[in-house]
């Protein structure tokens, strides 16, 4: 079975070394594993929640996309896209919003932290809090559920968002699933092996602490000058250092092999000066990211190349999101009137209509095919030993269409009645099948 892995990065800043080592590098690596189907995206709708500077959002999106590509992401293999290129995301977000309890959102850590800060400074509890921030977890749930991701690699601060995603998904499944689930319940993937880099002051490297080491920005020079500012203790060259307790060693380890790291550690313990240690650290980081920086600069100088990759990614993503969205619309009662109108028109115009044709297969079992008005096969059913079961399946297809019997499994739509699968077909054919079945109903 393939595991769908999905993660997004909010496009509100310039990626730093911590973003690279903690999120981008491990995700690129995960995407090369066998059996992994990876979805990585730029969360630019999320960026609007905390950033009202259009240029910054656009620039950050470009920088983050270029970082993924320069870091070696195989954009043909994974599905790599920009959230705002998928109209299905805000649409799904709304459907989920309508099944999400307000009380659940009241409990979100990020929202509660903002309220606490307001209360602490004696302001109105909701001062400065927009609805985007309040319902942030629902938009994130839409990102994840849209592609039925199994695993979502995130930082610890996002664990609650995944719990909420599962809550919201279960609620939707319960309300509309009629026994067949629309959504997989995803899990947060917290990788203990992945480095959380310390910043210049030893706290977690983060834009909000202003303690970051730049990744590409400013070139090797800026990297070096940041490394030189890393806080160390005051031990002189020649004095043994506490390698284990130093941020420098933690940073070095995130870029070096185990044997390089133990060598570095030994040198510190034998009295290497902090200045020399910083030079070694610079060299080691540079060895990995230097070549990427050239690719990054090249991409940033040709934004149209990035755009082209993102467009191709969005198309690939929409091939999955659009048919799934059609199923969901149908499930909640928003069956596309356009589809119904087209179907009715097709019936009138040609006089020909879609048909369900039953027959006996080579093994003498009963099967049927759904043929479109033009005679093209839309799907072939499973084999039934009992003709009555085949007949019942045909009847319910004729009378209720896909409502309540269709569910999605990876790239397939599965039709099941009372738990028994009657047919499966490529999810891309969803709309054509739904439309054909509509013409069978009178
Ligand atoms: N909330 C994430 C962050 O700030 C970004 C994000 C948006 C995300 N949608 C997502 C992460 C879906 C994982 C899956 O880091």
- CATH H level, superfamily name of the largest domain: HUPs
Radius of gyration: 27 Å
**Total strand segments:** 11
Looking at CATH, which topology of the largest domain would you report?
Answer: Rossmann fold
Q: What is the strand content?
A: 5-15%
Ligands (ions, cofactors included)? tryptophan
CATH A-level architecture of the largest domain? 3-Layer(aba) Sandwich
Distance between the termini: 40 Å
Compact summary:
The chain is an alpha/beta fold. It folds into three domains: 3-194 and 302-315, 3-Layer(aba) Sandwich (Rossmann fold); 216-300, Orthogonal Bundle (Tyrosyl-Transfer RNA Synthetase); 335-438, PH-domain like, CATH 2.30.29. The protein has 17 helices and eleven strands.
Topology:
Elements: E1 3-10, H1 17-31, E2 36-43, H2 44-50, H3 54-70, E3 79-82, H4 88-97, H5 102-106, H6 109-120, H7 131-134, H8 136-146, E4 151-153, H9 159-176, E5 187-189, H10 219-228, H11 247-253, H12 258-269, H13 274-301, H14 303-332, H15 337-350, E6 355-360, E7 366-371, E8 377-380, H16 387-400, E9 406-409, E10 412-417, E11 420-426, H17 430-440
Helix pairs in contact: 3-13, 4-8, 4-14, 8-9, 10-13, 11-13, 15-17
Residues 6-8, 10, 43, 46, 140, 143-144, 152, 154, 158 line the site of tryptophan (TRP).
């Amino acid at each position: 079975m393939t595991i769908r892995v999905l993660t997004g990065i909010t496009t509100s800043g310039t990626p730093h070394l911590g973003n690279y080592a903690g999120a981008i590098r491990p995700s690129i690596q995960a995407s090369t594993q066998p059996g992994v189907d990876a979805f990585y995206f730029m969360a630019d709708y999320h960026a609007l929640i905390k950033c009202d500077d259009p240029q910054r959002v656009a620039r950050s999106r470009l920088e983050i996309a270029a970082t993924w590509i320069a870091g070696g992401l195989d954009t043909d293999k994974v599905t790599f896209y920009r959230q705002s290129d998928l109209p299905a995301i805000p649409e799904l977000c709304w459907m989920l919003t309508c099944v999400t309890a307000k009380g659940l959102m009241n409990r979100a850590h990020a929202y509660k932290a903002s309220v606490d800060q307001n209360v602490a400074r004696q302001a109105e509890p909701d001062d400065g809090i927009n609805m985007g921030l309040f319902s942030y977890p629902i938009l994130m749930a839409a990102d994840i559920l849209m592609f039925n991701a199994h695993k979502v690699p995130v930082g610890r601060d996002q664990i609650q968002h995944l719990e909420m995603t599962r809550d919201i998904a279960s609620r939707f499944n319960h309300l509309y699933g009629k026994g067949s689930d629309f959504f997989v319940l995803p899990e947060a993937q917290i990788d203990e092996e992945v480095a959380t880099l310390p910043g210049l002051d030893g706290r977690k490297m983060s834009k909000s602490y202003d303690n970051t080491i730049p990744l590409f920005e400013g070139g090797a020079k800026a990297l070096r000058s940041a490394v030189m500012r890393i806080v160390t203790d005051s031990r002189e060259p020649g004095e043994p250092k506490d390698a284990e307790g130093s941020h420098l060693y933690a940073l070095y380890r995130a870029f070096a092999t185990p044997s390089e790291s133990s060598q570095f550690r030994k040198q510190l313990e034998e009295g290497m000066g902090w200045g020399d240690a910083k030079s070694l650290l610079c060299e080691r980081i540079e060895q990995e990211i230097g070549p990427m920086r050239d690719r990054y600069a090249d991409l940033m100088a040709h934004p149209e190349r990035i755009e082209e990759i993102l467009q191709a990614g969005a198309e690939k993503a929409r091939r999955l999101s659009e048919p799934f969205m059609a199923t969901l619309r149908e499930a909640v009662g928003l069956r596309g009137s356009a589809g119904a109108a087209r179907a009715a028109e097709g019936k009138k115009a040609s006089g020909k209509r879609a048909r369900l044709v039953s027959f006996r297969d080579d093994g003498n079992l009963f099967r049927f095919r759904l043929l479109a008005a033009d005679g093209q096969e839309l799907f072939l059913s499973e084999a039934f030993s009992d003709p009555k079961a085949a007949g019942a399946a045909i009847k319910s297809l004729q009378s209720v269409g896909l409502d309540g019997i269709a569910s999605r499994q990876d790239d397939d739509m599965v039709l099941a009645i009372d738990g028994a699968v009657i047919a499966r077909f490529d999810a891309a054919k969803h709309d054509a099948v739904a439309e054909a079945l509509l013409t069978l109903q009178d």
